[in-house]
Automatic annotation (TrEMBL):
Signal peptide: none
Bias type Polar residues, positions: 1-9
Subcellular location per the Swiss-Prot or TrEMBL entry: Nucleus
Organismal lineage: Eukaryota, Amoebozoa, Evosea, Eumycetozoa, Dictyostelia
Portion of the parent chain present: 274 to 471 of 471
Domain HIT positions: 27-131
Organism, scientific name: Heterostelium pallidum (strain ATCC 26659 / Pp 5 / PN500)
The protein's name in its UniProt record: Histidine triad family protein
Source species, domain of life: Eukaryota
Residue stretches spanning the membrane: none
Length: 198
DNA sequence: GTTCTAGAAC
DNA sequence: GTTCTAGAAC
């Protein structure tokens, strides 16, 4: 049996503290001018980018320029920033996309994966090859998706965001449902195909 | 967040 | 045999 040689070592793993993938949105906020391929709008307060793995035909992320790690870090003093994010999103849909607001959802994931507060602007077709896991479906078609007005009212009423994490985690083990007719499906491809004509 | 892939489900 | 899901990734 040949003995291992010095060049048989495995590739060096990523060992830095924290998960670098979860920081991937930060550069867009820090220097939007350097990412004009993804950035579709920016000003002093916010950035709007195309989602790199769109879960529908139209999918954008709206983020503050200032670092706010997640919805759980929102303060009551951020209420005007939220209003601004909503206003600019609606303007983008109307003026740039020239689409009807009713074909979109604006909102936040109850338990986001990526750092930096981001509001989704997503069309309701959910027709995209990047939507490939049950978790994706759940995150946009159930209460896991918190519409802008709900998050706004949560912050305004409670002076901070209050999230029942257990409730949202439990959604992942519910059966796959069509959000229009509530019929249950066994697989993700089957519900996606059904949804197109429901 | 995604990729990869083993093995379950069909 | 092929489709599909779900968990590890150091």
């Amino acid at each position: 049996t040949p003995t291992p040689t010095s060049n048989s070592a495995k590739p060096k793993p990523i060992t830095s503290i924290g998960n670098r993938w979860s920081d991937a949105l930060l550069p867009y906020c820090k220097s939007p001018e350097d990412h004009k391929d993804s950035v579709v709008y920016y000003d002093d307060q916010i950035v709007i980018i195309r989602d790199y793995y769109p879960k529908a035909k139209h999918h954008y992320l709206v983020m503050p320029r200032r670092i706010i790690p997640s919805i759980n870090d929102l303060k009551i003093t951020d209420i005007e920033l939220l209003e601004y994010m909503n206003e600019k999103s609606i303007s983008y849909i109307h003026q740039t996309l020239k689409c009807d607001l009713s074909m979109f959802m604006l909102g936040f994931h109850a338990i986001p994966s990526m750092k930096q507060l981001h509001m989704h602007i997503i069309s309701k077709d959910f027709d995209s090859p990047s939507l490939k896991k049950k978790e994706h479906w759940v995150s946009f078609t159930t209460d896991f998706f918190i519409p802008y007005p709900s998050l706004y009212n949560n912050l305004k009423f409670n002076q901070k965001i209050i999230i029942d994490k257990e409730k949202y985690l439990a959604l992942k083990s519910d059966p796959i449902k069509c959000p229009k007719c509530s019929n249950v499906f066994k697989t993700l491809p089957s519900v996606k195909e059904h949804y197109k004509s429901c």
